[in-house]
Amino acid sequence: MTRKNRFSWTTVTILTLGCGGDKLAGTGDTEPDPSADCLDEDGDGFGRGAGCVGSDCDEMDPSRHDGCLADCAACRESCVGLDGCEPFDLENGGQNVEELPGGGVGLGPGTTPQTTLELIWIADTAQGAVSKVDTRSHVELGRYYTGTDHALDQPSRTSVDFDGDVVIANRAFGGQASVTKLLASGCPDRDGDGVVETSTGRADVLFWDPGAGPTDECVAWHTEVGCPDGQWGDRDEEREDGREGAACGVARSLAVQDRNGLDGVREEVVWVGLFNEHKYVELDRTTGAPTGVEVDVAPCSPYGAAIDRDGRLWSACLSSYLASFDTSGPGAGADVIEQPGSNYGITVDEHGHVWTGGQVTRYDPATGEFLSPGAGGQVGEGCADENGQCFEAAVWGSSVAADGNGSVWVGGCGGGVCRVREDGDGLTWTTLPVQNGAYGMAVAFDGMIWGIGMSGNNAAIIDPDTESFEIVLNDCEGGGGRGGEQGPEGDWEGQGGTGCLAFPYTYSDMTGFQLRNASAPRGIITHLFSGCESGPTRWMALGYEASVPPGSGIALEARAADDAQALGSAATIDLGSLQDGQSSIELDGLNGRLLEVRATLSSDTEAGPILFGLTVGWQCEEEFG
Question: What's the pLDDT tens digit per position in 321-370?
């Protein structure tokens, strides 16, 4: 988890310590303004304030300053963010970060969203593929096989990470369950032919060779999980739920997660729930390799997953069981409780409440109370059970999605889509006559609600302000559906209809909104530094100043190349996690005229991290030793 093959950067801005402009360290320093203030404890002219030559990374040593790059005897420097440096440009980037009144950049609402977050990934189950659709234009930008067996892979659950990339679970009934990751952007040219081979739409699904692997270069990895469905695992005892033994496989639950490890290093993982094995397995999200961590959730059969901001994974079980476990200490095992009715889809809202489909239910982990909307939009009366709780359920549905504004949207509900709202101590609900067979629900980052039509092979987009809707992805002659074979022009033989999708049996976090709505805050800042105008550039060092309280973290990554096109597919180097205070990092092996650096800010507590600045130092050919 410490080295990455690809970096998807579309956010903005990084900070740096030290001088503004390009110069040789220790030479060409400008004179400070004597009329301006400078806080300079070691008397070297470097410190904090407009009267200083530049910022000082070590106020106890007059020989160390400029972001601690003075050790680089012949380095040119550049900075951004602090006094005398290039200012932040959050208007053109920045994701979930903001300038703080006291200086520096910390977690916040952010400004411009990533373009990779303007996508929705919809599983085309009958085809064994997934569609990448622009949520603004409603245009399908690509379609990708998710495994070697195509339709037999039966993809369904999707989970979108903070970079906009998607992970897909292949259920593969009767076959080998697997998980596939697709990149939203920045796909590498793996065969080195100068072109990134990837799909451009519905009629352009690239072949997946069972022997040689995928030809689409946006497929990051593919990992088999569990043993084939129908084979026996290593447990043959009779289970509490009456099942004899544990048939393997069937990946029916999925959730991506970013977390801060014990050493402060950011870990990117994905949890896969194996329905027939009653367990979750953890994969490294960068490589797809199993981490070796598994959690038994029996008697729950994982059917859907969501992770709250405390790092607790909640699992629907297609039954009255509701399972959960702490992902930071999974060795403690899972807690399995019973809820009223049977569950189906699952999500966690912005308040930490757990919502499940099936009999639509809200669970409050803080109080242990369940609540369901009752007949006529009111909580039912006179129906208290032995625990004093009341369930006169009138709302049944498949998937659930929280919009961050107090509503939860339910697919497959009342012949359309239901909207459930909190109203005092109760829940109210209304039904929208969305007649496209909306089964899976998703929330886009522009606030629109997507209902994926499993029977219509299309999608409904609902405006939550007016509750009006339009049907999209519905203009493809010979639309897809269950079974059938795709013809050479992308049409579906013998299917009819105009739906563009292929039996989209999908209900999970298709946009990444549920992840951000429920999980711990995370922000990203990036900046592009330019080196030598001509000839080779050798990047030498990076200095930083940061505030990193316990429970928070700042991870730095970088890549370099001679031009923007090459930078897009350049390998990314993990520079590690920043410590509180000021220090420097050696930039080993980063060569090229352009250097792109990304800082990822995260926090599990109210005290978030602050990045005050970075300084980069480089050498041109005339300074090479």
Answer: 999 999 988 888 999 999 988 999 999 999 999 999 999 999 999 999 99
Residue boundaries of the structural domains of the chain: 3-108+522-623, 115-190+197-518
User: How confident is the model over 137-158, as a mean pLDDT?
Assistant: 96
Cα–Cα distance for residue pair 295/315, rounded to 1 Å: 12
Cβ distance 461 to 449 under 8 Å?
yes
Q: 370: part of which helix (H) or strand (E)?
A: strand 369-371
The DSSP secondary structure of 212-269, one letter per residue, reads: TEES-TTEEEEEE-SSPTTSB-S--SBPTTS-BS-B---EEEEEEEEEE-TTS-EEEE
| Lowest-confidence region among 34-43, 66-75, 160-169 | 66-75
Q: Which residues contact 241 (CB under 8 A, 6 or more apart)?
A: 298, 299, 301, 319
- Is 58 strand, coil or helix? coil
Joined together, the tokens standing for residue 159 give 């989970």
Sign (positive or negative) of CA dihedral 238, 240, 241, 247: negative
Place of tokens 């930083």: 544
7: closest CA among 616, 557, 592, 541?
A: 557
Identify the CA nearest to 3 among candidates 555, 601, 582. Answer: 555
pLDDT band at 391 (very low <50, low <70, confident <90, very high): very low
Of 48-57, 89-98, 242-251, which has the strongest mean pLDDT? Answer: 89-98
Residue listed under structure tokens 């966690």: 348
Question: How far is the C-alpha of 484 from the C-alpha of 151, rounded, in Å?
Answer: 10
- CA-CA distance, 598 to 591, in Å (whole number)? 16
Give how far Cα 157 sits from Cα of 269, 304, 306, 548, Å: 16, 8, 12, 36
Alpha-carbon gap, residue 419 to 416, rounded angstroms: 10
Question: CA-CA distance, 448 to 444, in Å (whole number)?
Answer: 5
Task: Give yes or no for residue 100 having a pLDDT over 90.
Answer: no
Which one has a higher pLDDT value, 376 or 62?
A: 62
Share of the chain above pLDDT 90, in %: 49
Residues 6 or more apart from 414 whose CB is under 8 A from it? 395, 397, 431
- Cα maximum dimension of the chain: 86
Q: Mean pLDDT in the chain?
A: 81
Number of Cβ within 10 Å of residue 447's Cβ equals 13
| DSSP H or E run through 439 | strand 438-443
Phi, psi of 237 (to 5 degrees): -75, 160
For the whole model, what pTM was predicted?
Answer: 0.73
Q: Which CATH number fits domain 115-190+197-518: 3.40.50.720, 3.40.50.2000, 3.40.50.150, 2.130.10.10?
A: 2.130.10.10
pLDDT classification of 494: cutoffs 50, 70, 90: very low
Contacts of 211 (CB under 8 A, 6+ apart): none
Most confident segment among 381-395, 438-452, 494-508: 438-452
